[in-house]
Design brief:
415 residues; alpha/beta; Rossmann fold; Ribosomal Protein S5, domain 2; nine-stranded mixed beta sheet; four-stranded mixed beta sheet; 28% helix
């Protein structure tokens, strides 16, 4: 083994990374334009959210009949018959997708070394690592592991899913990917607390960590980049779950805005930023008299502590006596906007609309950050939000440029 030698930074040639397009637009958006050869991607999410469906669609898109580039899909949870049933439901019938039912990581690597996927016969003695010099090798173009918590190696003791087994199996997959240039997709379990199961080092070993989330009772799914060595970490992909699998949504506002054209008290429209994409959402509020000693405060899609803070500002700075009432605030479509302060003004206007029982024009878009003094502040990418709202036909805007204090906005529309 050769001795590693340091290289001066100025002596390294600047090379652009060549990416592999998956042809799933929202996935490519989150990855930063596609997959980098040798990239290891970990996709985590709750059971039943659609991880296996997405991975099977990735396998279908990355396999190419013309170039004989194929995908090896390894399942440690389901039988090949169950995967076939899912493929039939998704309309996938691709002979360049090879299925392997195994939980032994060493067996998986051996299979990749001796099997020419997409061919009618195995090639004896052909070494995968020696002959795969580029990502579009005729042997395979991608490896999919579903899931890492079911994999194990006989070199270590312990059951599959233990800290040592998960760490070692992930390390061997990363080593395989880097030495061959083959991208690897790994599905990961989550714990009851909502974190990725297994050791924390798992997230450090892989190149990219994608978080798949959404309400399973609703069709919308969000794919967030938690870590990405080859792209942005603030990007979000939006999918809709249909009969034929996950569909990329270029215009997702239809999921977050109601179809009703009638103005109803408590309903307002705001604009949030998901990654680099402006997204219009509908915020609904309901205020009813409380019969409890401590009134209810229910928040869906926003931080409950943020709701308490805004109620205090409305009570102290604007004179709204809401503290004796039950308050419910929800973001339509199941989207989570807890970390975006730009919806503060929209939440306050929505609460005031419900309190005074006066509706707000549905052609109005509201966004701005509200401080403890009741002041309305500018938000990031304000021009981009306005441009997106105008593109969708909105012409009236309530921002910090129009009202510098929350009390002025409430007085203008409700008093």
């Amino acid at each position: 083994m050769g001795e590693a030698k340091p290289v001066k930074l100025t002596e390294i040639k600047n090379t652009q990374t060549k990416r592999i397009v998956t042809w799933i637009s929202e996935l490519d958006r989150v990855l930063g334009g596609g997959i980098v050869p040798g990239q290891v991607v970990l996709i985590a999410g709750e059971p039943g959210i659609g991880k296996s469906t997405l991975l099977l669609q990735v396998a279908d898109k990355l396999s190419d009949l013309k170039t004989k580039s194929s995908v090896l899909y390894v399942s440690g949870e389901e039988s090949v018959g169950q995967i076939k049933i899912r493929a039939d439901r998704l309309g996938i019938n691709n002979k360049n997708i090879a299925l392997l039912e195994s939980t032994n990581i060493d067996e998986i690597i051996d299979q990749m070394s001796g099997l020419e996927i997409g061919s009618d016969k195995t090639v004896a003695g052909k070494s995968f690592l020696k002959n795969s010099t580029s990502y579009n090798s005729p042997l395979t173009s991608c490896l999919i592991i579903d899931s890492i918590q079911t994999m194990q190696t006989t070199d270590l003791s312990g059951m599959a899913g233990s800290v040592g087994q998960v760490r070692e199996c992930a390390y061997r997959l990363v080593k395989l990917a880097k030495s061959s240039g083959i991208p690897v997709f790994i599905a990961g379990h989550v714990t009851k607390q909502g974190s990725i199961a297994g050791p924390s080092v798992l997230m450090h070993i892989v190149d990219t960590v994608l978080w798949f989330e959404g309400d399973k009772t609703l069709p919308v799914r969000l794919l967030r980049a938690v870590k990405n060595r080859f792209g942005p970490t603030d990007e979000v992909g939006i999918f809709s779950m249909g009969d034929k699998g996950l569909n990329s949504e270029e215009h997702p506002e239809k999921f977050f805005l109601s179809d009703s054209k009638k103005t109803i008290p408590g309903s307002v429209i705001s604009c949030v930023i998901n990654g680099t994409r402006p997204l219009l959402v509908e915020i609904q509020s309901l205020i009813v008299p409380s019969k409890l000693v401590i009134p209810r405060r229910v928040a869906q899609g926003i931080d409950s502590k943020k709701l308490e803070l805004l109620l205090a500002v409305l009570s102290r700075r604007c004179g709204l006596s809401i503290y004796e009432s039950d308050v419910y605030v929800s973001v339509m479509g199941g989207i989570n906007i807890k970390n975006d302060p730009s919806v503060d003004l929209a939440i306050c206007i929505s609460l005031a609309s419900a309190f005074f029982n006066k509706a707000v024009d549905r052609k109005m878009v509201i966004f701005g950050e509200v401080g403890l003094l009741g002041e309305v502040r500018n938000v990031v990418l304000q021009d981009k939000r306005l441009k997106e709202a105008r593109r969708l036909g909105f012409r009236d805007f309530v921002t910090s440029a129009r009202f510098d204090f929350l009390q002025k906005a409430i007085s203008a529309y409700f008093k």
